[in-house]
Amino acid sequence: MCRPGHSGPTHESLQEVFDRKAFRPAVNLSNPTTANISFTLYAVLGVNEKTQILTTFLWLRMYWFHEYLIWDPDKCDGISKISLPVSNLWSPDIIVYEFVDDDVSQACPYVYVNHTGHIRYDRMLRLVTACNLEIFSFPFDVQNCTFTFGSYMHTIRDVRLKPALPFEEMSGNSKRYLEDSGEWELVVILGDEGILKFGIDEWDIITFWVVVKRRPILYVVNLLIPSSFLMIIDILSFYLPPHSVDRASFKMTLILGYTVFLLIMNDLLPSTANGTPIIGIYFSVCLAMMVISLLETVIITNVLHHNSMKYRPVPHWVRMIVLKYIAQLICYSDPDLTHTQRKILEQGEVWSTQQTRNDTTQHTHANVGVSPLCVPELVEISDCVRAIRSHLTMLQREEALQDEWCHVGYILDFLLFRVYLMLITFYAFVIIFMWCIWMYQ
Question: What's the CATH fold of domain 11-215?
């Protein structure tokens, strides 16, 4: 391998090896060539949830044994390691099975060859791989993607794969580079050796599970906090008088602002056909609650102004469901509620009795005639007093009806307010719980 007067192997001495690069470097072809693989995850370049693609940048290192590249360092002026062009040597055709795009990374043109025949090949690899991304818990999501390394053509009889480093060491090396880099944080790298079967052929493979989790602070600041502010303002709007027209216009302004907020932040939300993140469901529910709140304001305004102004009594089923059962359910207590109902009944009875008496008196006067003892001025004054009393009774009945319709509106408003608070509190606890799970992973 070494010639006198030269320090190390020469090109002429290696020419025979270069001519055999098309053949696997094994004296006995029945013995498989073992390739050892390790990598360091340097960066997570991007995650495309819509196409389910993960883009990463790796420092890949590969070792294999070349049985024709062995020399004695003592006979080669102490040279124990040289670099050779990778294009002049046989190299295992190791690929990543999840790869879905062209390799645009820069390939290293050289390999290091040790005097024992062991070759080390280092290269930078930009991987664009398919990954089943779970986005339900976005932005507190943890992704588990696989990198399956294996030969493309050589079966298990020709090429065997082994990890070059323990999986814990690969995980530790990668964490040092990903600790303060980008949106993603490495949790752990796990691995396993296996065999891929396809028909009668078998391929030796190594599967790496790369578990990364997203840093959510960007989305908390830009999505959750502004949405929470708008929801708090909408909750506080329930303290406005339900019969006020300004309350409806205020809620419409909030809905418009929330819609603009969702349109602006739509690019930050992941989109996929496999599912919807819980934060997207949260935004949809918040928008739906705002719309229901506006609808409830319109209904209550109609109840307080339309029905009461037409002097319609509250239907019996509304009185039973709203004033009795719903009021008890939400613990709504008003000391004037029972008194108002009793007042309406009493005024109705008085009104009916007074109408009956008036009809009877008019019928008697029509049949009998006016008594000669009755002074016409007194009869006229009596009719005026009776008309005033009837008008006052009618006004009191109308006021009682308006009070009862007001109680119906207040109870419905208070019910939606309670439901609103329960839903917002529930989603707040869910988000806090998911954040805690993310922190302890």
Answer: Acetylcholine Binding Protein; Chain: A, (2.70.170)
Please name the residues in contact with 129: beta carbons below 8 A apart, sequence gap of 6 or more.
53, 54, 55, 56, 96, 98, 99, 100, 145, 147
Given a cut of 80, is residue 371 above it in pLDDT?
Answer: no
Q: What average pLDDT score do residues 234-260 get? A: 80
Tokens of 192: 């396993």
The CA distance from 300 to 236, in Å, is 17
Neighbour-count burial of 342, counting CB atoms closer than 10 A to its CB (0-12 exposed, 13-18 middle, 19+ buried): exposed
Q: Say whether the peptide bond before residue 139 is cis (omega within 30 degrees of 0).
A: yes
Q: Which residues lie below 8 Å from residue 189, measured CB to CB, with a gap of 6+?
A: 41, 167, 170, 171, 174, 208, 209, 210, 211
CA 262, CA 256: separation in Å to the nearest integer?
A: 10
Residue 132 vs residues 1, 9, 145, 304, 327: alpha-carbon distances, Å:
51, 49, 7, 54, 50
Mean pLDDT in residue range 210-226: 86
Q: Return d(Cα 384, Cα 376) in angstroms, integer.
A: 12
* Range in 158-162, 242-246, 325-329 with the lowest mean pLDDT: 242-246
CA distance to 21, 300, 348, 403, per residue, from 315 (Å): 95, 16, 15, 14
* The pLDDT of residue 185 is above 90: no
pLDDT band at 420 (very low <50, low <70, confident <90, very high): confident
With 0-12 / 13-18 / 19 or more C-beta atoms within 10 angstroms meaning exposed / middle / buried, residue 72 is exposed
Residue type, 59: W
Answer for the pair 59, 36: CB distance below 8 angstroms, yes or no.
no
Q: How confident is the model over 61-93, as pLDDT tens digits?
A: 999 998 888 888 888 777 888 888 888 888 898
d(CA 163, CA 166): 7
**Using CA atoms, how far apart are residues 287 and 265, in angstroms rounded to an integer?**
14
Order of strands across the sheet that contains 53-65: 81-85, 110-114, 118-130, 53-65, 33-48, 159-163
The alpha-carbon radius of gyration of the chain (Å, integer) is: 42
| Every domain of the chain and the residues it spans | 11-215, 219-359+388-439
d(CA 290, CA 283): 11
Question: Which two tokens mark 81?
Answer: 């390691």
